[in-house]
């Protein structure tokens, strides 16, 4: 399973929701002992440089590396969601499933997601980080 975190166009609240979803997904994969890789276009500092691609792994060290990056993330986005999808499709393994975590998409982002969906079919799960409803 590859966990893909898109940060392009996220408001601060949407980014926080996406980061929280990513943490939950990775923790759940760990509990189920399902190896996973991680890819993002966001700015996630790691213990030894920025985290953009993390190879498939499992265990406390793997999860801790991702959680460290999520905890230190800022709103910087290094490249488009379109390029993130392109990179993913270029390196796609035939038996790989994907969990995409993204702020709401429109325009080019939505078209890129459709391209990924048509390429991978039913092995794609999309989670959208939205701003929380404001209470009056």
Structure description:
Helix content is 41%, strand content 25%. The chain is an alpha/beta fold and 136 residues long. The chain is globular, with a radius of gyration of 14 Å. It contains four helices and nine strands; from the N terminus they run βαβββββαβαβαβ. Helix 1 (12-31) links the parallel strand 1 (2-5) and strand 2 (36-40).
Features:
alpha/beta; single chain; two-stranded antiparallel sheet; 5-stranded mixed beta sheet; 136 residues; 9 strands
Short description:
The protein is α/β, with parallel strands linked by helices and 136 residues long. It has helices spanning 12-31, 60-72, 81-90, 108-120; strands spanning 2-5, 36-40, 42-43, 45-46, 49-50, 53-57, 74-77, 98-102, 124-128. Helix 4 (108-120) links the parallel strand 8 (98-102) and strand 9 (124-128).
Write the layout of secondary structure elements.
Blueprint: E1 2-5, H1 12-31, E2 36-40, E3 42-43, E4 45-46, E5 49-50, E6 53-57, H2 60-72, E7 74-77, H3 81-90, E8 98-102, H4 108-120, E9 124-128
Parallel strand pairs: 1-2, 1-8, 8-9
Antiparallel strand pairs: 2-6, 3-7, 4-5
* Major sheet size, sense and barrel closure: 5 strands, mixed
- Globally, the shape reads globular
Which parts are unreliable, with pLDDT below 50 for 5 consecutive residues or more? none
SSE sequence, one letter per element: EHEEEEEHEHEHE
> How many helix segments?
4
Strand order in the largest sheet: 6-2-1-8-9
Quaternary status: single chain
Averaged pLDDT: 90
> Total number of β-strand segments?
9
Radius of gyration: 14 Å
Beta-strand content bin: 25-35%
Content-based structural category: alpha/beta
What gap, in angstroms, lies between the N and C termini? 40 Å
Helical content (DSSP H or I, runs of 4+):
40-55%
């Amino acid at each position: 399973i590859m966990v893909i975190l898109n940060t392009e166009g996220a408001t601060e609240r949407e980014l926080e929701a996406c980061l929280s979803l990513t943490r939950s997904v990775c923790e759940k994969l760990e509990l189920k002992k399902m190896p996973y890789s991680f890819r993002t276009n966001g700015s996630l500092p790691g213990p030894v440089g920025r985290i953009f691609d993390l190879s498939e792994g499992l265990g406390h060290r793997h999860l801790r590396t991702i959680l460290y990056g999520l905890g230190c993330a800022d709103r910087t986005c290094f490249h488009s969601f379109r390029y993130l999808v392109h990179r993913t499709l270029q390196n796609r393994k035939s038996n790989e499933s994907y969990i995409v975590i993204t702020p709401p998409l429109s325009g080019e982002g939505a078209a890129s997601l459709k391209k990924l969906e048509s390429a991978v079919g039913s092995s794609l799960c999309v989670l959208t980080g939205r701003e929380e409803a404001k209470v009056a």
